[in-house]
Amino acid sequence: MTAAAVSAPNAIEVRGLTKAFRDQTILDDINMTVRAGEVYALTGPNGAGKTTLIRCLTGLAFPTRGRVSLMGRNVHTDGPRARAFLGAVVEAPARFYPQLTGTQNLTLHARLAAMTPSGRRVGRDRIREVLALLELTRMEDRRVAEYSLGQRQRLGVAAAILADPKVLILDEPTSGLDPLGINLIHRIVTSVAASGCAVVLSTHHLREIATYAHTVGILTASRLVDTIDLRTRQAAYRFRVDDSHRAAALLQQLPYVQRASSRAPYAVAELGGEERVPDALAALSASGFRVYEAAPDHFDLYEYYRERVAHA
Ligand SMILES: Nc1ncnc2c1ncn2[C@@H]1O[C@H](COP(=O)(O)OP(=O)(O)OP(=O)(O)O)[C@@H](O)[C@H]1O
């Protein structure tokens, strides 16, 4: 995310969202914020409520309480205007007319998108461009009935990004894709976000999203139990010292340290960047600590998730 995106207004805002089916609470008081340019990955065990939350975000399902805004507009009370900014794949694979070709389906999609308030006109060149981006050029004139599951999945993403949305919401966009297909979706999500779009996607692929998501939300048993800012986690360094508790307390006092903690024998600190490592070493040494090792403290999202879900 760029510095400009960090100060951008919230693209998605969810406040106090609760959803119940009869007497069962599926989502309990969910609050989340996603900014322009941010990739927010939603994860959690099967049945935790991810699809239900995504359906609420896109306006397809109505909350029992709470509200969702996209680009400042309430998706449930001001639906057409809020959805004018939205591209989404809510069902995997997305539904298309099987007797029409990929190009014909996207043309239809473009016409429907142009009918929404402030809907953007999408020309043939853009349709060709997104088909090429999703590596579907070879299939563009074939009927969708002839597409494999993975190809339909990719056509769904092509349709979602067609009109250059400001908010992109994808429910399990990589399910059913081969490793190269998964990588392709990751690259597309990264480049769409880099152009200022806010992205929410649900996924079970933790090790992959750890490489490109900015934020990870863990949903378990109806509640968003954790929101992890991966950028700060990945800027952590560990120092093996003679007294990790006191060293962590010292590091915490330094102006460029966002957070420090002790994990004996290490003092672990979020420094904001590698260039601060010599400064932190100098500060530790000036205070009389003996430092035996300094290294990046790689954040293992999978291990963290396992702990978090087990103790939720
Ligand atoms: N229309 C419905 N009526 C009643 N219960 C529902 C309905 N839709 C979903 N649920 C229940 O809501 C809970 C959450 O389902 P949801 O599909 O949102 O989970 P999920 O996190 O997306 O799961 P998965 O990882 O398996 O896709 C489940 O217990 C499911 O049975």
From TrEMBL:
The keyword Disulfide bond does not apply. Keywords: ATP-binding, Nucleotide-binding, Transport. The keyword Nucleotide-binding applies. It comes from the Bacteria. SMART domains: AAA. GO terms for molecular function: ATP binding. It holds the Pfam family ABC_tran. InterPro entries: AAA+_ATPase, ABC_transporter-like_ATP-bd, ABC_transporter-like_CS, P-loop_NTPase. Residues 12-246 form the ABC transporter domain. Belongs to the ABC transporter superfamily. This is ABC transporter ATP-binding protein. It comes from Deinococcus sonorensis. The lineage of its organism: Bacteria, Thermotogati, Deinococcota, Deinococci, Deinococcales.
